[in-house]
Amino acid sequence: MIPWRTRQRLVRAALGTITVLFLAYQWLPMLTMALLSFTDPEGGTTFPMRGVSLHWYRELLRVQMVDDFKPPMARSLALAGACSITTAALALAAAQAMRGRLRGSGAYFYLILLGAMAPGLLVGFGVALLARVFGFGLAWYTSTFAVHIVWTLPFGFLTMLAVFNRFDRRLEEAALTLRATRWTAFWRITFPLVLPGVIGAALFGFTLSYDEFARSLFATGPEQTLPLVIYAQFDRQLQPTLYAIGTLTTAVSLGAVALFATLLRLVRRRTLTSDQPSKKESQP
Amino acid sequence: MSTLRERSPAGYALAAPAGLWMLGALVVPTIFIAWVSLWAARGFTLASPLTLANYAKFFTRPAYVRVLGDTVQQALVMMLITGVIGYSIAYFLVVHVRHPGLQLAVFLLLVVPFWTSALIRTIGWIPFLGVNGVINQVLLLTGIVDRPVEAFLFSRTGITLSQVSFYTLLATGPVVYTLRNIPPSLPEAAQCLRATPLRVFWRIVFPLTLPGVMIGQILVFLNVMADFATAQAIGGHKHAFLGNLVILLYESGQLAFAAVVAVLLMIAMLLGVAVLLKVVDIRRLGES
């Protein structure tokens, strides 16, 4: 019989190996794509990589390529920005409403969560069918926007619920006891305290919309978003230009995450310092 | 006392925008699909007579039924694989990584890809799977095979390989959450009573994480059932799941029949979730 300490070490080594292997497995395709995007003009879409160059990025700047990729990129960014703001606002309102113990709040909770569970392709499909029968046009700033919010809102909503669950109600109560109106107490006390959650909701709104493919497929009109254009190009022919644009758009996603994380840290620091006022501030 | 009075009109006003949005852009389109699925194949109008003929057509064609079977089978395979890998990662992360900085680093490495494009990540798999791909080059180099294997690209294996890299996170997250919520005193008490570590795991830890496991299984199930992009990109139009069938039929103008497939996909998803929820309940009853 193996002593249990050794056995524990074995289990730990085995689980650690699985974790490390999986992380490598998860990241390798993304890193490989980034690496191969720097291949030479003669380089193909797989190894062996030939030389190092910026050829395929320069290729993206060619007039025809700019025409192909720039408008969709601008549309995707605008759409993601709109989804970010809308998700944050709707999630904040919906989560605050849940605190009022409304009639039917159980059903309401599941209604919003349904947006994350429903198959995206089919939501877009339903909207496309409605558009056909009732003769309204599909466009990225109307129908696509509507179905993207269906996808991003549940994530923002859950984030806000979690934040409202954890925040210190006594601060709000103190403000109300001191005769602040509910409106003032909300904006002066509650909102700054739940602001990290609002930023989190905005991040979900941005990145989930920016990368969304399934919901856009049926719901978008002739003016397409970036993932749709990338897919169409991929379906025609796989070239290292796609690796270059893929690397760029991944950089945009990760940049957005980093930006929101920085924002979050700034807000946290500010809240922390105002929680425990420094001597300089507390002196008249 | 709070900034919102209980059951005040203001509460309903705050709840309305999000609720109406979900009704208009999610519930109405979904119900409309179900309605369209009953329309006669010819003439696409609201006045169309209602019929079940489209459903009968689906179930009399073996090719279509096979797609349904393939989709469910793929979901089951993925649940098994991601369940095992996901639980291992979650357990390692929570129990064995003690250093908080390292824990955060591993967690971020795990989660960050969720915020990038699944489509781009799928394309990233292509250089690995081809006949000249990385996997084949490694296999040839190590002498495991002496001829390149063609079974990766345009195959179910390739689809599964890439889906595992997308969906394992969904099986890990909820387990991490439930593992973190176990009070350390519980396994400690069992150890004091001289239970072996293996016994502590199976009798104490695992049952407590079961809700997390089931939520993960539900998430993986739903996502794999709805996944069509991986099959389309990696499977190269040679492999179809129900989602791909919807696209195919839509593009060929068979809208009512596409709606039938969509409804069947949704029913299969609902049934699957109902079954999974039942499994959790049964085990809970067994414990008490």
Brief account:
With 284 residues, chain A is mainly α.
What does this structure look like?
- Chain A has 284 residues and is mainly α.
- Chain A has 12 helices and no strands.
- In chain A, helix 4 crosses helix 6.
- Chain A starts with a helix and ends with a helix.
- Chain B is mainly alpha-helical and 288 residues long.
- Chain B has a single domain, classed as Orthogonal Bundle (MetI-like fold).
- The two termini of chain B are 38 Å apart.
- The mean pLDDT of chain B is 87.
- The interface between A and B is large, with 94 and 85 residues.
Descriptors for this entry?
heterodimer; A: 284 residues; mainly alpha; MetI-like fold; 12 helices; disordered C terminus; B: 288 residues
Tell me about the biggest sheet of chain B?
none
| Dominant shape of chain A | globular
Q: How big is the Rg of chain A?
A: 24 Å
End-to-end separation of chain A: 72 Å
Helix-and-strand structural type of chain A = mainly alpha
Strand content of chain B: under 5%
Instruction: Give unreliable regions of chain A as ranges.
Output: 277-284
| End-to-end separation of chain B | 38 Å
CATH architecture of chain B: Orthogonal Bundle
- What is the number of helical segments of chain A per DSSP (H or I, 4+ residues)? 12
What is the level 1 CATH name of chain B? Mainly Alpha
**Which structural class do the helices and strands of chain B define?**
mainly alpha
Into how many domains do the coordinates of chain A divide? Answer: 1
What is the β-strand count of chain A?
0
Number of domains of chain B: 1
Topology:
The complex is a heterodimer of chains A (284) and B (288).
Chain A: H1 4-36, H2 55-60, H3 63-98, H4 105-117, H5 120-134, H6 140-166, H7 169-177, H8 182-210, H9 214-219, H10 226-236, H11 240-275, H12 279-282
Helix pairs in contact in A: 1-11, 3-6, 3-8, 3-10, 4-6, 5-6, 6-8, 7-8, 8-11
Chain B: H1 9-36, H2 53-60, H3 62-96, H4 100-111, H5 118-129, H6 134-141, H7 156-180, H8 185-192, H9 197-226, H10 229-234, H11 242-251, H12 255-287
Helix pairs in contact in B: 3-7, 3-9, 7-9, 8-9, 9-12, 11-12
